[in-house]
Amino acid sequence: MTNPSLRSVVLGVGSYLPARTLTNHDLAKIVDTSDEWIFQRTGIKERHIAAEGETTSMLGEKAARAALANAGLVPDDIDLIIVGTSTPDWTFPSTATQIQAALGITHGAAFDLQAVCSGFVFALATAEKFLRSGSHKRALVIGAETFSRIIDWEDRTTCVLFGDGAGAMVIEARPSSGAASERGILTTHLRSDGRHRDKLHVDGGPSATRTVGHLRMEGKEVFKFAVGKVTDVVADAFAATGVTPDELDWFVPHQANRRIIDMSAQKLGIAPKKVIATVHLHGNTSAASIPLALSAATADGRIKQGDLVMLEAVGGGFTWGSALIRW
Ligand code: UT7
């Protein structure tokens, strides 16, 4: 049973990007594309690519350590780790358990959650429900990906879009009166519709093909869905809390494409100055994109304690979700 007197409060965020950057100009040497085409259609300028042997859990561990430092905590303070990823180090064990071990944590629970680009929002919604139930005290919620490993580097329609990286958030269960003015996650809304598999999927997997496979996408269809449908979960968050778009301080959507980001904000009546966008620097890092954007916007002082922050994501499945946070 949910304990109505608890709320999950954000204590810190952190991120990690692999050292190597790949610019649009670099990509134009690999496939038939141009900086102009990529930037005009997506807003992306460059992305980071993991080094040989640098795995998702390694990126996730570094982001987790940064988030813990930002929160003023040590690994032992954490009793729940949830990792949103579609590019795990291994089929099993989970990336979360590998990060748990790397952090030296031997208590609590750690598991992966697979909702593709919505992975961070799904993981955050799951963690905050654990915390509100009273079963766990402090969670590390991580989005970590190495999409460079599942990209078909000969397919110009997809290889220009994605990048590697990781972001993490520490949340803690704290007593709450339930007021929207108090810090913490106010509401989360998750949706899925598995009929859309073919529009965005990986054509391999242990059970279906015994292979890892490559990412395949019908870009136009995904675009239409992202702008046309996904805003319903943000409207749900407004309806559940009585918060209006004008009251929002920041809108932090999944960073896949600048045009999707801007069109979604416009449709929701959210002013352009409230939109956080990092897609030009990271490309689409799937489950890592929202915590990467949150890290950038807290580090540079835009997002401050007390601000109202709306997260929104869409990914393969389709999956989509929102989270409204009083920072
Ligand atoms: O987390 C969710 C993940 N996915 C997304 O968010 C992706 C959503 N979709 C999109 O962002 C856009 O659909 C894309 C950026 C993928 C594509 O933009 P578009 O405006 O829908 O372009 P298009 O697919 O209709 O392609 C237009 C043209 C085609 O040539 P023709 O048939 O008109 O001659 C493509 O072959 O652009 C061509 N093209 C390229 N040209 C240069 C496709 N990819 C490239 C490329 N460089 N990389």
Task: Describe the overall structure.
This protein has 327 residues and is α/β, with parallel strands linked by helices. The chain has 2 domains: 6-175, Peroxisomal Thiolase, Chain A, domain 1 (3-Layer(aba) Sandwich); 184-326, Thiolase/Chalcone synthase (Peroxisomal Thiolase, Chain A, domain 1). The protein is built from 11 helices and 13 strands. It has helices at 24-28, 35-42, 56-71, 95-102, 119-133, 156-159, 219-228, 231-241, 258-268, 279-282, 289-299; strands at 6-16, 20-23, 46-49, 80-84, 109-113, 138-146, 164-175, 184-192, 200-202, 215-217, 250-253, 308-315, 319-326. Strand 12 (308-315) and strand 13 (319-326) form a beta hairpin. Helix 7 (219-228) packs parallel to helix 9 (258-268). The radius of gyration is 18 Å and the shape is globular. The relative contact order is 0.19. Bound molecules: oxa(dethia)-CoA.
Keywords:
about 325 residues, alpha/beta, Peroxisomal Thiolase, Chain A, domain 1, 2 domains, five-stranded mixed β-sheet, four-stranded mixed β-sheet, 13 strands, globular, binds oxa(dethia)-CoA
Helices and strands in order, then pairings?
Blueprint: E1 6-16, E2 20-23, H1 24-28, H2 35-42, E3 46-49, H3 56-71, E4 80-84, H4 95-102, E5 109-113, H5 119-133, E6 138-146, H6 156-159, E7 164-175, E8 184-192, E9 200-202, E10 215-217, H7 219-228, H8 231-241, E11 250-253, H9 258-268, H10 279-282, H11 289-299, E12 308-315, E13 319-326
Parallel strand pairs: 4-5, 4-6, 11-12
Antiparallel strand pairs: 1-7, 2-3, 6-7, 8-13, 9-10, 12-13
Helix pairs in contact: 3-4, 7-9
The protein binds oxa(dethia)-CoA (UT7).
The site of oxa(dethia)-CoA has 21 residues, from α2, α6 and α7.
